């Protein structure tokens, strides 16, 4: 499971010109799910994300987590994170999980992030054509691969 975490001042997602989710201070997370991911990946990644200390303290050091700053999460599913670009110029998405695997894991991640953060999170819509807008704060962008946890 891949997560691109962007520290934002604001972020939103629209579908068919309707705002589906929006946040102020927090994380915009792009989530890529592969066919070998499991609930263990969800649990580990959620705790890692919620505990990530990348907000500035009074000394300007990245030392504060989401809960401390009252931050929120906007979670967007993005199968293209698992694109293979080894051959040619057209990416292959063979490593991205099929919907019957990805949707339950995406929904589990929503529930897990909400539980770990202690409040509901905002989301996009799995498989939809979404327009994502953000104001990256820093910029701070972190990539986490749940397969690199050991």
Write structural notes for this entry.
It is a single chain. This protein is an alpha/beta fold. The protein is 24% helix and 37% strand. It contains three helices and eight strands. Strands 1, 2, 3, 6, 7 and 8 form a six-stranded mixed beta sheet that branches. α3 links the parallel β6 and β7. The model has no long low-confidence stretch (mean pLDDT 96).
Helix content class: 10-25%
User: Which oligomerization state do the chains in this entry correspond to?
Assistant: single chain
- Average pLDDT figure: 96
What best-fitting shape do the alpha-carbon axes yield?
globular
Terminal CA distance reads 14 Å
| Percentage of β-strand residues | 35-45%
Radius of gyration: 15 Å
Structural class, please?
alpha/beta
N-to-C order of helices and strands: EEEHEEHEHEE
Biggest sheet, open or closed, and with what strands and sense? 6 strands, mixed
Q: What's the number of helices?
A: 3
How many distinct beta strands?
Answer: 8
Q: Which residues sit in consecutive blocks of at least 5 with pLDDT less than 50?
A: none
Q: What characteristics describe this protein?
A:
150 residues; 3 helices; two-stranded antiparallel sheet; alpha/beta
Short description:
By secondary structure, the chain is α/β, with parallel strands linked by helices. The protein has three helices and eight strands.
How do the helices and strands line up, and which of them pair or pack?
Layout: E1 2-15, E2 18-23, E3 26-32, H1 39-51, E4 55-56, E5 62-64, H2 66-69, E6 72-77, H3 99-117, E7 122-123, E8 130-145
Helix pairs in contact: 1-3
């Amino acid at each position: 499971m891949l997560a691109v975490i962007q520290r934002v001042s604001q972020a939103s997602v629209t579908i068919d010109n309707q705002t589906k989710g929006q946040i102020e201070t927090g994380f915009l997370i792009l989530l890529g799910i592969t066919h070998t991911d499991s609930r263990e990946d969800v649990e580990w990644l959620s705790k890692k994300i919620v505990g990530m200390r990348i907000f500035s303290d009074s000394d300007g050091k990245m030392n504060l987590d989401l809960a401390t700053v009252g931050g929120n999460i906007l979670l967007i599913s993005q199968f293209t994170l698992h694109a293979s670009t080894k051959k040619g110029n057209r990416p292959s998405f063979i490593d991205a999980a099929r919907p019957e695997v990805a949707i339950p894991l995406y929904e589990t991640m929503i529930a897990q992030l909400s539980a770990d953060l202690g409040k509901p999170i905002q989301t996009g819509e799995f498989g939809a054509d979404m327009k994502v807008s953000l104001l990256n704060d820093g910029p701070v962008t972190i990539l986490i691969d749940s397969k690199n946890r050991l």
